[in-house]
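User: Quick sanity check before I run a bigger batch. Here is a single chain. Can you write out its predicted 3D structure?
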Amino acid sequence: TESEVLPDGSAIAMKEVNLQGTESEVVTQMEEAEREMKLISSLHHPNIVAYYGMAVDQESMQIRLFMEKMSGGSLGALVRSLDTRLDETAAAHYTAQIVRGLAVLHS
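Assistant: Done. Predicted structure follows.
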């Protein structure tokens, strides 16, 4: 995942997804990605990463996803960087945030 700074000073992340398979499978993957992006970009919640859009590059067989850049990186990276285990209070805090985001996704 790369990040870019927009003219207004805000940062966005860009993730490249390589498409694989037959021509028909790649077309299906692109269509599914477009449907998913349409749904995800309509969600607005503090516990869900905002997705702004996507670009399909048929020549390189890649999809580029443009999303909110999260400061601090992923929860997995945070946990791996710790010298000790994540304490129960912090784990409960992160779990509550995850559950709130999932509740929105499943509503």
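The chain has three helices and four strands.

User: Great, the batch can go ahead then.
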